[in-house]
Amino acid sequence: MSINQAFKALSDPTRRTILDLLKERDLTAGEIADHFQMTKPSISHHLSLLKQAELVSDERKGQHIYYSLNTTVFQDLLKWIASFQ
Fold it and tell me: Cross-referenced PANTHER family, in alphabetical order (predicted)?
């Protein structure tokens, strides 16, 4: 995990909203796109950056790819932040 990549990914409000959606349940890219007024390629770009930062993972189920939170990375980020107390 790169802390720089994680914070860069978290700096964008669209990506933070995607993470909020994934807190509820795993979603496909199409289900995520339904919550935004932007093109599906734009959503794919945001998902790609979240995957590169290892904040989300994806899994193919049949014809669909489901995205889910990678809570391990969030725990690592929190540990790093807590080390400054």
Answer: TRANSCRIPTIONAL REGULATOR, ARSR FAMILY, TRANSCRIPTIONAL REPRESSOR SDPR
List pLDDT tens digits, range 10-68.
999 999 999 999 999 999 999 999 999 999 999 999 999 999 999 999 999 999 999 99
Structural domain span for residue 41:
3-79
Query: Using CA atoms in the order 58, 59, 61, 65, what is the torsion angle rounded to 10 degrees?
Result: 20
Q: Give the pair of three-digit tokens for residue 21.
A: 């959606």
Q: At what angle do helices 40-52 and 13-24 cross, to 10 degrees?
A: 80
Beta bridge partners of 28: 66
Domain count, the chain: 1
Residue 20 inside a domain? The answer is yes
Q: What is the pLDDT of residue 1?
A: 59
